[in-house]
Design goal:
Length: 713
């Protein structure tokens, strides 16, 4: 892998990109930004290219443009970038950009699946950028302002997306926001809203820690203690529900309906965040880095890949994700994985002559579904190689700490001039290679700790001498891109005890699940006419089938609910509110559909009568034609109360632009009810305000559905 570190395959493209900048502009950039030099000239050129491309992304309103082809500020892009490099490269532009993503004192979620928040919930990544910006600037006004924004957002998300059963936060995988690229095709936005994923929960964990650290600095120990307790509980929940001991890494997410199951795919960004933030202990961190699939062109976003899906998140490497993985590998002490990451990022920049948004994992091509050159977070990922990894700069609460991780290929002297540290500028040299600082000097004087205090002012020199050794010699799983079998389709029940499905080509077996539990594994040769006998089952069953090929699992089929019709009750909402007069809304099963919108049926009181005590699954048949499945931010959501007690949140995602007669079911709430009458209240509360600045929070409701679940006894 070391020989691959700097292939000169497309060096001409790189040099032409650098020559395109006039000499006067180059001099200006030299004065404005830190300057890196090492003994490998192509490394210097790649770093210079990244600085040039970063400067090209500053807009007229002093914000970071997302990429050459993508205008505007995106919450996740700018904050991952701030964490990697943007916060110290230009603090003012970063601060302006972060505030562009705040509305009414809370963080804005980018547009996305089903009208985005609360289907997509990774807006809390803003905390990473805000905290990094404070550590760079030590601006107490920013500390107060950003803490309030983070706390407001956490409170809203606790009320809206927290699952008290698992202790996890619900919502789409961070940045993996194109449904079929990382989710089974049967999953609707409502299903994604109820899934619980690795990366987004890692962000919430870190946001709680950041809120705690900010509270400490602002003299609020009670709040700090509360946030640390929530962080500890979330860490425990991630490790309890998502860690897979047999795989050696965390699962991609929990998904399903009444009985969620684990997706055993790895998710590279989430795995990296768990290592960097300390959700994984040191032993698990090393196992994760040794266990994930690395490919010749880089570490794909997920593994194995999904068949018959065009590359974008699926079968793709994203350089910013690769950068996070690189830093996680360094934290775990795996020099082979670090070298592989440097090679993946730099080879791509050499091939394309730019910091491309993504590329195909299997071929290295940039022919993916969407792609941009000169991409902000790719640029910052590249800069982080030279600044954060090789020179080891790490902004922390007590100052700028130095913790370089230097592959032996970079054994010479590395220099980083005019690096900002509060009110100081540092000229840094790092000598040697290895994973530990052997000696640290500030202005020529040896210090016991590799730390520059935040009170330092003026120009200073820093010299770091490395130990020329690695503590670990861990391996990596370098292999070609792997693909799972296709998802199983057309699952059906033949009678009451025979399960059927359409067989998957090239599969060699199937796993049968009942209510989320694996009940049988059936070799392909034993399938008799696509039927499989089932044992005695409970009153309510969710049946699924997973195809196998060489030990690799495909996605589980859509849950097939099987239950006695007497266990379902439908309650027409037109019995409790006037039916709407809205011509595009048709196909309802009751006397009419009831509209919920801003100022329209803000509170809907529903009376139900339950024949038998037990646990019930409650959801609503609804239509939301405010926009399509992938754009805008007009998902509707409401709080649900039962007999005066708040029991959860119901989300009504967008289902298609103008498709007010396309009916589906909302997210659900599990609720234990006694026999007899009950009052359910569906109500709009302040935390239900979505990210639509126009105030669009609208859906049409047909009926409420209650399904009795089997007893847990």
């Amino acid at each position: 892998m070391t020989n691959k570190l700097f292939l000169a395959v497309s060096a001409v493209l790189l040099l032409s990109a650098l020559r395109a900048t006039p000499a006067q502009a180059q001099d200006s950039l030299y004065e404005r930004y830190p300057s890196f030099r090492c003994a490998i000239e192509q490394g210097n050129q790649l770093c210079s290219l990244s600085v040039h491309e970063l400067d090209n992304l500053i807009e007229a309103d002093s914000t970071w443009r997302t990429g050459k082809w993508w205008g505007g500020v995106w919450t996740r892009d700018v904050n991952y970038s701030a964490f990697l490099a943007a916060a110290y490269m230009d603090p003012l532009v970063t601060r302006t950009s972060l505030m562009k993503k705040v509305w009414k004192g809370r963080i804005l979620q980018d547009t996305g699946t089903g009208g985005s928040w609360p289907i997509s919930t990774d807006r809390i990544v803003w905390a990473l950028g805000a905290w990094q910006l404070y550590l760079v600037t030590r601006d107490e006004d920013w500390l107060r302002q950003s803490r309030q924004i983070i706390c407001n957002t956490l409170r809203q998300d606790e009320l809206t997306v927290y699952d008290s059963t698992t202790g996890l936060m619900r919502g789409e995988s961070s940045f993996l926001d194109w449904r079929e690229e990382t989710y089974p095709r049967w999953m609707q936005p409502a299903d994604i809203a109820q899934s619980e994923c690795l990366g987004t929960n890692a962000l919430f964990f870190q946001a709680y820690r950041i809120a705690a650290d900010m509270s400490d600095l602002l003299g609020d120990p009670a709040a700090a203690s509360d946030y640390r307790a929530k962080a500890a509980a979330l860490r425990e929940a991630v490790n309890r529900h998502l860690w897979m001991e047999d795989k050696g890494y965390y699962a991609q997410y929990l998904y399903g309906r009444a009985y969620p199951i684990l997706s055993p795919r790895s998710e590279t960004l989430g795995e990296a965040l768990c290592i960097l933030f300390g959700i994984a202990d040191s032993s698990r961190a090393r196992r994760i880095v040794c266990s994930l699939d690395l490919t010749p062109y880089g570490t794909p976003c997920i593994s194995p890949q999904i068949p018959n899906i065009y590359p974008y998140h699926n079968n793709a490497v994203w350089p910013f994700v690769q950068a996070f993985w690189m830093h996680a590998a360094a934290r775990a002490g795996n020099w082979r994985a670090v070298e592989h990451s440097i090679a993946a990022i730099n080879d791509a920049a050499l091939r394309f002559g730019t910091n491309q948004e993504n590329f195909v994992a299997a071929t290295g091509s940039r022919e993916t579904a969407m792609n941009s050159p000169n991409m902000l977070w790719s640029i910052c990922g590249s800069l982080s190689i030279y600044h954060r990894l090789l020179c080891g700069v790490r902004f922390e609460a007590d100052g700028l700490r130095f913790a370089p991780f230097v592959p032996e290929a970079f054994a010479g002297v590395k220099s980083l001039s005019r690096f900002p540290c509060g009110r100081a500028l540092l000229d840094i040299t790092v000598e040697g290679w290895g994973d530990r600082v052997a000696a640290f000097y500030l202005d020529g004087k040896r210090r016991s700790l590799p730390l520059v205090p935040p009170t330092l002012k003026g120009r200073h020199s820093v010299r770091v001498v490395m130990n020329n050794a690695f503590a670990h010699n861990d391996t990596v799983r370098l292999r070609p891109v792997s693909t799972s079998p296709e998802m199983t389709y057309q699952v059906f029940l033949d009678g009451t005890d025979r399960l059927g499905w359409r067989q998957v080509p090239e599969s060699d077996g199937y796993v049968i699940l009942c209510n989320g539990q694996r009940t049988d594994t059936v070799p392909e040769r034993l399938i008799n006419g696509d039927r499989h006998p089932l044992p005695y089952a409970p009153r309510y069953r969710e049946l699924q089938v997973i195809a196998l090929r060489n030990g690799i699992e495909g996605f589980a089929s859509e849950p097939l609910p099987c239950y006695n019709p007497d266990d379902e009750q439908q309650v027409c909402l037109s019995n409790f509110a006037p039916a709407a007069d809205f011509a595009p809304c048709k196909g309802f099963g009751c006397a009419g559909a009831v509209e919920i919108a801003a100022g329209v049926n803000d509170s809907l009181l529903i009376e139900v009568n339950v024949a038998q005590a037990g646990e019930y699954l409650i959801d609503f048949r609804y239509a939301n034609g405010s926009d399509n499945l992938t754009d805008n931010n007009r998902s509707a959501n409401r709080a649900l109360y039962a007999d005066g007690r708040r029991v959860g949140n119901i989300v009504f995602p967008q289902r298609g632009k103008g498709l007010w007669s396309l009916w589906g079911y909302s997210t659900s709430v599990r609720l234990r009810l006694s026999a007899g009458p009950h009052q359910l209240l569906l109500t709009f509360q302040p935390q239900n305000e979505n990210m639509s600045r126009e105030g669009v929070n609208r859906a049409f409701l047909d009926h409420l559905r209650l399904i009795r679940l089997p007893s847990a006894d």
